[in-house]
Amino acid sequence: MRKVLSLIIVFLGLVLGASTKNSTLDTVYFYYAENRFNDALTLLQQLQTRPTTREMQQNILLEIADYYLDKANDYARAESIYQQILNAHPGPRLIPAVLYRLALTQELQEKYLEAAKNYEQVATRYIKSPYSQDALDAIERCFRKNYQERVAYVNNYPITRIELDDRISRNPSAYESFDAKLRLLDTMIDSRLLYEAALTRNLHKDPQIRKTLLDLRNRQMFQVWYERYVTTRAEPSEKELRTNYKKNITRYTIPEKVQGYQLVVTSKTLAESLRSVLVADTGKWDSLVRTYSITPDKERGGELGLFARGVQPKPIEEVAFRLKPGEISPPVSIGDTYYLIRVTRREAKKVRPFDEVKNQIAVEIRQDRTNKIYEAEIARLKKAAAVIEDSLALEQNKETLAVVNGVPITRKQLEERLNAIPPFFRGQFETPEGKRRILQQLIIEKLLLKECEREKLWLSNRVVDQLINRRTALLIDAYRRQETTEQVKLDSATLYSEYKKTINDFKEPTRVRCREMIAKTQSRAEQLRRWALASRIPPLINGIAFLVKDENKARELLRILKETPNPDSIAAASALAGFNVRIPSTPVQNIAGKDLPDLTQPCKLAGPFISSEQFAFAFLDFSSEDQLYQPEPIVVQTTDDLKKLLTAQQKPAYTLEIIDSTRLGTYVRLITPLPTSFLKNIFKLNAGDVSEPYYTPAGYLVIKITRKDTAQQVEFAELIRRFSISGSKWSGGEISLTRDDKARDPKVVAAAYSLSKGSFSPVIKLNDTTYTFIRMEEKKLAYTRPFSEVKGKIENRLRREMEKQLYEQLLSQLRAKAKIEILMKEEDFKTEPSETGKE
Questions:
Q1: Cα 96 from Cα 91, distance rounded (Å)
Q2: Which residue from 24, 444, 561, 595 puts its CA 20 to 30 A from 228's CA?
Q3: Rounded to whole angstroms, how far apart are CA atoms 505 and 499?
């Protein structure tokens, strides 16, 4: 009784929602959409026995053949029925439809020559048929098998040169040799043998494989439907594009623009002084911007880019649009900063031509229409169907959430769809609103699937092509899995036996876990070791020092440094020349992308400098224990002077690959320590303070303190992260050492194994520029990893080995039973010499 009531509901829903070209077959399409294929066949057979018109009889017979082609995959039976319809001389409308289907059944049975001939008839004789384009695509697919140049036969099945070339084209470099091509051909032969074996075992009837292919088929049909009924209809015409262009002409109008540059300082006096210099010589703009500007764009000459009104602050905009190209504005005050604005060019307002924005307009119209057309199509399908939605079903935890054409959509179906969403995205759909979206999608899919069945979109070449390729891969994979993966049986006893045999693989040696500190010099390493032992960093300062020859200029620099919070740009203008010009291996600190000599490191010779008037140096993390060195400039005016200077140094002498005019300029020695009294005064300064000019025989030294840290307690790992020069610093210097560790210096290994937990090694010299000391953190004695820990690893290895062995045996057996003929020869791949080459 329940089944009868169910059928009544179904047919009532269909009657209420019927709006098809052929309402007699509407129920068949409904059954297809619900995967009730047997019910569909039964109904078709019943319809076949009823008296009706000749045209209707042919349509029913066509539907029966379609059932065997698409649902039952009985290609031979489908071919027989299609041939029967053609023999009955159907009307001209039906002929291309039947011919296309007949060709498809023949292709699926690997009757490629017959299939190609029938596809050709559809493509050439029935050009206006809806199947003509799909037939053209299918001809190309069949051509690959009908190609006369064969490279092999497998049980009389041809593998063509064009198929081989296609595989080679995916990775040409891997198949350059003939042997590599032969190996590829062997792989193609093996795939064919596995496919034939899978068919013999009837794996194409396996429910899981059929379901996978059905899901793929449905997804592809949805895409074809969307392209055909939404995307194509959303495409705007040329006339519409031009109308939209004229209507929105202001959107395509480019306003007046200026190319601007800025120089920004915090002193009005400095800004006015700089402007007077620039008005006299605009060629100095870039160097002065890099030296004095406080904005990040100083490295680009203060470039603001090409901008229109409304982009820059109002005061800058007003000035910029009043300037003529080449002019420099008076200082513009904004807050506590002063701007010099320079304009180099202006662009008048213009309208972008239609051809330039045509594609942009098309994209916008397409996007807008696509959503509207899709929503209209879904509304049409809902109106034509019997859809009952219970708005409270989700909140009230009802089992039936909606009914489409008499068929319920249940909570279980919604939960299955929800669980199929990857966990990362699932959260947004677990809300009531998210579940309503999933429910709507389930309703739409039911409506679309029936529409796709009615429109026979499974006949589209896009769907067919995907199914053919995927079907082959699925069958091969299933057969291989049955013959290899499912044949491997591994119990715990077998795995434990393997564990005992390979026990040495799971023995872990004694390991010592340490932390390492790496420094460039022994004195620095000793200093860091003292800090590590005390777990304390003393007060530290960072600073930039400038050497200026003239006292008045030193005083002016002092004033500028006091007014400039960040002196990096000033230092960068007085830095060393590029690494390809300067003396190699100079100890440096990088400031604002430029290298400055490190004032804490003695140096026989550094240079040349960019500037010839003032020279910048830097020091970082400087403590009262450290030493600063007095700069001694040396002016080099000729290449001969430079050669003498280099050769006069104590051995080893500096060497430069090329000595030319690019290396001339001012060099410096850092040999003599600065007085302790001067250093004490430096330590009295706070961050941001500037020292009074300090007289040296070479000029005046002016220092600005850029950072000052008070003494602080510190863990060894943090000390390493801050001061070590090794890449291990980011992990707190952690290293793990075995007794015979070949990757580490033997002295480090020996020290690690001699230390007790928490103790430090002495400083160890690794080479002339690398010194280290370590602290022992933990010693883990040798042990054997337990079976429970490595069981999975053993199982995976054994399984891979056994599966590989079984697979090789399987291929050997299949090849022994098969008739294989390889026609490919090495000379087939030799390129003929060109006519030019012959001459």
A1: 10
A2: 24
A3: 9
Please check whether residue 542 is in contact with residue 622, taking contact to mean a CB–CB distance below 8 angstroms.
yes
CA distance 706 to 609: 22
Asked whether the CA dihedral 767, 768, 772, 773 is positive or negative, the reply is positive
SS3 at position 772: strand
pLDDT for the residue numbered 733: 95
What DSSP letter does each residue of 556-586 carry, written as one string?
HHHHHHHH-S--HHHHHTTSBPPTTTSPTT-
Q: Which residue(s) pair with 775 in the sheet?
A: 515, 760
- Rounded CA-CA distance 740/750 in Å is 10
Sign of the torsion angle spanned by Cα atoms 628, 633, 639, 645: negative
- For 306-323, what is the mean pLDDT? 91
Q: Name 525's Cβ contacts closer than 8 Å, sequence gap at least 6.
A: 517, 519, 763, 771, 772, 773
Asked whether the predicted pLDDT for residue 835 surpasses 60, the reply is no
Alpha helices in 50-159 (DSSP H): 54-66, 75-87, 94-108, 112-125, 132-146
Show the 3-state SS of 204-243: HHCHHHHHHHHHHHHHHHHHHHHHHHHHHHHCCCHHHHHH
Residue 170 pLDDT exceeds 50: yes
CB neighbour list of residue 576: distance below 8 Å, 6 or more residues apart: 582, 586, 588, 594, 595, 596, 597, 606, 607, 608, 609, 610
Q: Residue with structure tokens 């620039």?
A: 278
pLDDT digits (tens, 9 = 90+) for 261-295: 999 998 888 899 899 889 988 888 988 998 889 88
Q: Of 781, 311, 699, 763, which Cα lies nearest the Cα of 512?
A: 781
What is the pLDDT, as a whole number, of residue 8?
37
Separation of alpha carbons 279 and 284, rounded Å: 10
Q: Which domains does the chain have, with CATH numbers?
A: 256-348 (3.10.50.40), 510-518+716-781 (3.10.50.40), 539-710 (no CATH)
